[in-house]
Amino acid sequence: MRPTRQTRDYAKDLRHAALSAGVRDEMGRIELSLEVRFLALCRQPGLSCRIRQDIFYVAGRAAMALDLGHLEAAERKIRRMEQVGSMEPRESRCG
Fold it and tell me: What are the CB-based long-range contacts (under 8 Å, 24+) for 14-22?
């Protein structure tokens, strides 16, 4: 059974209550970085459908790593997302 959004949010709240303020701040910084970079990549003109799908996939993996508290893994995924977004070709777009 897949957890609902409400269950996921509740689990995140419990995890945040157990973490130090420094770790929570670092998680917030990484989460903001993920969102800003993801949106910037998605707004690039001419991305192929395949590259756009790959960006979504890697961003999801980064978000999942953050949800699990794996900050280093989340940062690696963000770097990977940027690499994917800089790949060619850019000719066919998602419709």
Answer: 15/69, 19/69
Tell the burial category of 26 from Cβ atoms under 10 Å away from its Cβ (0-12, 13-18, 19+).
middle
Report yes or no: 89 and 75 within 8 Å, Cβ to Cβ.
no
CB–CB of 55/81 below 8 Å? yes
Q: What is the pTM of this model?
A: 0.77
DSSP class of residue 19?
Answer: S
Q: Is the peptide bond before 3 cis (omega within 30 degrees of 0)?
A: no
Q: pLDDT digits over 31-81, tens only?
A: 999 999 999 999 998 889 999 999 999 999 999 998 888 999 999 999 999
Overall size of the chain counted in residues = 95
CA-based max dimension of the chain: 47
Going by C-alpha positions, the residue among 57, 7, 83 that lies closest to residue 67 is 7
